[in-house]
Inverse folding.
């Protein structure tokens, strides 16, 4: 991740992060040393993965993961969850997610719900700091990655985090096949 000019331990940049993310880093309990969670300063205008790849190069796509908020519904009960997959894949919402949440129907959560309930900005949602009562579904390929570029909770900035740290976040469930190749 040498392409970034400003790379620092995230614990030294808490003021740049939304409160739920800053609190999770401040209270870090994972098996990975908190100093291994890095913050990189990026332009908020290029927060989306495709724009980042266009700006920094195609190598970035292979070293990034995306976190999306999904809503599983069964009767009148709606369960929100975070899903973390490699950027080269898409979340299997109607298969793996629906089954894992025990829902009749699953879909991506509306933007206002995802933003309002997570306390994060759209285009920057990260698994670090999601509400404690949400399941966090993590693709096995994410857990196995040495490190990945993920959202920081804000459109400005990204986090570089070891896969092991992501797999051991509160509420995390590592699943095979959560991320499906694009077009599959």
């Amino acid at each position: 991740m040498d392409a970034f000019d400003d790379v620092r331990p995230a614990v030294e940049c808490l003021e740049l992060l939304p409160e739920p993310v800053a609190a999770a880093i401040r209270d870090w309990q994972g098996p990975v040393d908190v100093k291994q969670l890095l913050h990189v300063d990026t332009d908020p205008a290029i927060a989306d993965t495709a724009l980042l790849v266009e700006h920094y190069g195609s190598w970035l796509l292979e070293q990034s993961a995306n976190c999306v908020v999904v809503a599983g519904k069964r009767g009148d009960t709606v369960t929100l969850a975070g899903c973390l997959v490699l950027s080269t894949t898409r979340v299997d919402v109607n298969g793996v997610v629906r089954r894992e949440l025990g829902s009749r129907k699953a879909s991506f959560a509306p933007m206002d719900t995802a933003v309002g309930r997570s306390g994060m900005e759209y285009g920057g949602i990260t698994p670090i700091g999601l509400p404690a009562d949400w399941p966090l579904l993590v693709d096995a390929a994410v857990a196995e990655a040495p490190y990945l570029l993920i959202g920081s909770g804000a459109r400005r900035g990204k986090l570089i985090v070891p896969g092991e740290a992501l797999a051991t976040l509160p509420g995390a469930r590592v699943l095979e096949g959560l991320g499906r190749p694009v077009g599959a």
User: Anything to note?
Assistant: Helices lie at 19-26, 49-56, 59-62, 93-101, 111-118, 140-144, 163-167.
